[in-house]
Amino acid sequence: MSGGEAKRLVRSPSGLRMVPEQRASRSPFGLDEPPWVPDKECPRCMQCDTKFDFITRKHHCRRCGKCFCDKCCSKKVPLPRMCFVDPVRQCAECALVSQRETEFYDKQLKVLMNGATFFVTLGTSDKSELMVCRLSNNQRYLVLDGDSHYEIEIVQISTVQILTEGFTPGGGNTRAVGMILQYKVPGSEEVTQMKFTAGEDFSCNKKLSAAWLAAMHKATKLLYESRDQ
């Protein structure tokens, strides 16, 4: 479970990317570069319908691959999910999505790697174990350490349900207090379930646990989006 996989700098039509040498080592949250819509298939901007000519040039969004005029595709925004070294040109819609993801990479990913403490219950057992849960540095494993030790490959996770409390019919605030995670055991179709519960005593920082669960919820959304690509 090494976090030091070799990377290489590659140049594509979209820009410079720093990618793992082995595809199997890539982050499970990553996205592949999209194919560009061929120039001959887009005589007009795919957003405002402006006709391209010698003055109005066409540009491709690096996230969706569609063709736009400069006005509709002028933003240069970081796109870490595709491993770009520098901010890249994106259409307005994609730029908003990428900007929202920046918080995950700048803040929530660090929260996941730093870890938090939970009571973990395996399967249908009625016994729980106090464990530190964190995301590995290469983002590919969920590591649980206590008296026992588990490493769950992120790509094997099938479902994540965040458990909350504090909901009221009037729409009161809720806070994350745990999660139920299901994952496949490598080499078989067997599905294992784990329940994570934030501790009630002061030795378990409930605020930190809630932040970790919120970050895990965001990570799950990105993971499912990567699978659906």
As for the number of domains, it is 2
Strand arrangement in the largest pleated sheet: 10-9-8-7-13-12-11
* Strand composition percent: 25-35%
Specify the biggest β-sheet.
7 strands, antiparallel
How far the N terminus sits from the C terminus, by CA atoms, comes to: 26 Å
The CATH class designation of the largest domain is Alpha Beta
Spans of at least 5 consecutive residues with low confidence? none
Domain FYVE-type: 39-94
GO molecular function: zinc ion binding
Region (Disordered): 1-30
Pfam families: FYVE (PF01363), ZFYVE21_C (PF16696)
Can you give a write-up of this model?
With 229 residues, this protein is α+β, with helices and mostly antiparallel strands. Helix content is 20%, strand content 33%. It has a seven-stranded antiparallel beta sheet. It has helices at 92-114, 206-228; strands spanning 7-12, 15-20, 58-60, 67-69, 75-77, 88-90, 116-122, 128-135, 141-145, 149-153, 157-165, 175-184, 191-198. The mean pLDDT is 88.
Helix/strand layout:
Layout: E1 7-12, E2 15-20, E3 58-60, E4 67-69, E5 75-77, E6 88-90, H1 92-114, E7 116-122, E8 128-135, E9 141-145, E10 149-153, E11 157-165, E12 175-184, E13 191-198, H2 206-228
Antiparallel strand pairs: 1-2, 3-4, 5-6, 7-8, 7-13, 8-9, 9-10, 11-12, 12-13
Helix pairs in contact: 1-2
Care to give the gist of this entry?
Residues 39-94 form the FYVE-type domain. Helices cover 20% and strands 33% of the residues.
